[in-house]
Amino acid sequence: MWSNFFVQQDEDGRIGVAGAGQGGGLGGMKGGRGQRRSHRMSDSQEGKIKLAFFVAIVGVTLTVLGMGTEFWVELAQPKNFSGNQTCQMAHYGLWKGCIRTLWVADIDPERTSCGPAELPGESNCTYFKFFTSGENAVIFKKTTTKNLNLAAAVLALLSLTMMAMGSICIAMSLSKGVQFFLKPASFCFILSGVLVLLSVLIFHQSVLALLSSDHSIPLHHELSWSVACVGSAGALLIVGGFLFIILSLPFSPWQKCFPHKNNAT
């Protein structure tokens, strides 16, 4: 009876007992499946995933910070346009716009336009009605193009959705200890970064359309710090997504260039 059993060594170097017959074959198959299911990523691999996830999380944080502010663009009249001691400027983002009245005496003498927005002064902020009544906003007699503003806002919201899905995939990958969810996460983060950059481009086009709608009041415009945050966030999200792609490969490129030296005799 004992001659029907033999000891074999599998490819991973583990020693197992396999028996002849249907019972032994099924037992060996179940054992092999159990061994494969119990395989988890190494601590080194988990640390690399956490590092790449940190890069993506920084991008997510910058995106939320930039989207929630109204400093995407600043529109400034010439500081002596009104002919008195005050001047007006505007700044707005995806959801809200503000008109600020500043003192000319507080402005840098070398600056020809009103601003910057950080100077003390009176501020009147209102939310855009693109999403409620569908009305265009009027800023210094210039009219916005609501379709462009809506497209920029929708793309930004879609990017947040993809960031949330990518974060869920990474959380599941770390909790289960498997690399299967890295590729879906990389797709989500890369797509979210692309959507963020597209949102910035469309928003800039909406600003140019606003400026060309009326020429009675000369305005100086410049993109503000919120756009810098969102643009940097898009780049970080794309970088994080590519890092997840590299980590999901069976052999990382640096492992091929610098193979691990086995010192065991």
Description:
With 265 residues, this protein is of the alpha+beta class. It is built from 6 helices and 9 strands. The chain has helices spanning 21-37, 43-67, 146-176, 182-211, 225-248, 253-257; strands spanning 5-9, 15-19, 73-76, 86-92, 96-103, 121-127, 138-139, 142-143, 220-223. The strands form 3 sheets. It has a 5-stranded antiparallel β-sheet. Strands 1-2 form a two-stranded antiparallel sheet. A hairpin with a 5-residue loop joins β1 and β2 (15-19). Residues 1-38 and 260-265 have low confidence and may be disordered.
Question: What key phrases describe this protein's structure?
Answer:
disordered N terminus, disordered C terminus, five-stranded antiparallel β-sheet, single chain, 265 residues, 6 helices, 9 strands, elongated, two-stranded antiparallel sheet, alpha+beta
